[in-house]
């Protein structure tokens, strides 16, 4: 079944399947959470004429592996394990060894790399050789959230299919269908924070950040002279060092601020500067592991300052 917003991607894929010569490498580009990986798996099965679901011997998926040998041992023992931050060259070379043999069930085989933009440089260089001289019957689907991070030589050898962000109306309809239990305020906050990404919106709902969204909005609109709203925000964020949740909190703060910028009649530079600082915090959080409570206070202070600047701009 096609996900919302995949209609054009399917049209391009099926037109190519019906053509005289199918391009051997495809770049599936778009922001995270648009269902590109799901499309890749479904498109691969369609190309192979495979019914049902589950693993297929001629669909090879390359993604993050264990962080090191100790984590690999945990994986082999069926225990939880940490993932590496990128796709390594050894993983690509292992796939390339498999490509020296014939497909298992037919004449075609598909390699899905997800996310391709997280390949280490050496892995990208190794993959380039396969893209330049693809084995007969082998097709590559590269999922990329930030395609500009790929080597230009890789991008040039791929046919690009772009996955657009969804409109607010489409996002609202999707959340009403998939998360009917969610209240309006949380749904609206999820739509704002996700910026057109269904996967991000559903993750936001799962993380239960509706109260945080309300507090951030009040801080921007009302200010926070006595720091009480910032204290509440820190409390809602909690003390747990939960990186995905903290990243979602930062995404939410940026979204709330971005919505505020167009309504400013005066100089918007303070808001733009605050947005840049939130972007910086988002990039630093996974590395520096900021204290969640202090991070909440910092976010609140930035939003309060931006709100005050907005009021001055509006006279």
What does the model show?
The protein folds into 2 domains: 7-162, Rossmann fold (3-Layer(aba) Sandwich); 209-313. The chain contains 14 helices and 5 strands. It has helices spanning 7-17, 36-48, 69-76, 89-98, 121-132, 152-156, 168-178, 184-194, 198-207, 210-222, 228-237, 243-260, 269-288, 292-313; strands spanning 25-29, 59-62, 109-113, 138-144, 159-162. It has a 5-stranded parallel sheet, with helices on both faces. Helix 5 (121-132) links the parallel strand 3 and strand 4.
Question: Secondary structure elements and their pairing?
Answer:
Layout: H1 7-17, E1 25-29, H2 36-48, E2 59-62, H3 69-76, H4 89-98, E3 109-113, H5 121-132, E4 138-144, H6 152-156, E5 159-162, H7 168-178, H8 184-194, H9 198-207, H10 210-222, H11 228-237, H12 243-260, H13 269-288, H14 292-313
Parallel strand pairs: 1-4, 1-5, 2-3, 3-4
Helix pairs in contact: 4-5, 7-8, 8-9, 8-10, 8-12, 10-11, 10-12, 10-14, 11-14, 12-13, 12-14, 13-14
Low-confidence stretches: none
Provide the CATH topology of the largest domain: Rossmann fold
CATH superfamily of the largest domain: P-loop containing nucleotide triphosphate hydrolases
SSE class: alpha/beta
Mean pLDDT: 88
Strand element count: 5
Number of domains: 2
Offer a few descriptive terms.
Rossmann fold, DNA_Rep/Repair_Clamp_Loader, DNA polymerase III subunit, 2 domains, alpha/beta, single chain, 14 helices, 315 residues, P-loop_NTPase
């Amino acid at each position: 079944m096609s996900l919302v917003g995949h209609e054009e991607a399917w049209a391009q894929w099926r037109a190519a399947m019906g053509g005289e010569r199918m391009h051997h490498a495809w770049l599936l580009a778009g922001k995270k959470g648009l269902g590109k990986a799901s499309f890749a798996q479904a498109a691969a099965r369609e190309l192979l004429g495979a019914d049902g679901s589950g693993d297929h011997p001629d669909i090879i998926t390359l993604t993050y592996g264990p962080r090191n040998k100790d984590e690999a041992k945990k994986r082999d023992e069926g225990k939880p394990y940490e993932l590496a931050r990128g796709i390594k060259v050894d993983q690509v070379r292992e796939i390339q060894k498999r490509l020296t043999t014939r497909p298992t069930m037919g004449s075609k085989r598909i390699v899905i790399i997800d996310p391709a933009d997280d390949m280490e440089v050496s892995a990208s260089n190794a993959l380039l050789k396969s893209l330049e001289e693809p084995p007969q019957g082998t097709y590559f689907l590269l999922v990329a959230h930030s395609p500009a991070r790929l080597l230009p030589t890789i991008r040039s050898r791929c046919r690009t299919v772009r996955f657009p962000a969804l409109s607010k109306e489409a996002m609202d309809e999707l959340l009403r269908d998939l998360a009917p239990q969610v209240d309006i305020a949380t749904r609206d906050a999820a739509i704002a924070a996700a910026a057109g990404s269904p996967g991000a919106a559903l993750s936001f709902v799962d993380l239960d950040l509706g109260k945080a969204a309300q507090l951030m909005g009040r801080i921007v609109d009302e200010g926070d002279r006595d720091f009480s709203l910032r204290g509440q925000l820190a409390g809602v964020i909690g003390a747990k060092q939960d990186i995905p949740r903290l990243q979602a909190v930062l995404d939410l703060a940026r979204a709330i601020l971005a919505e505020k910028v167009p309504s400013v009649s005066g100089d918007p530079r303070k808001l733009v500067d605050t947005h840049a600082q939130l972007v910086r915090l988002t990039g630093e959080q996974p590395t520096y592991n900021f204290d969640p409570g202090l991070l909440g206070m910092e976010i609140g202070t930035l939003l309060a300052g931006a709100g005050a600047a907005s009021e001055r701009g509006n006279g």
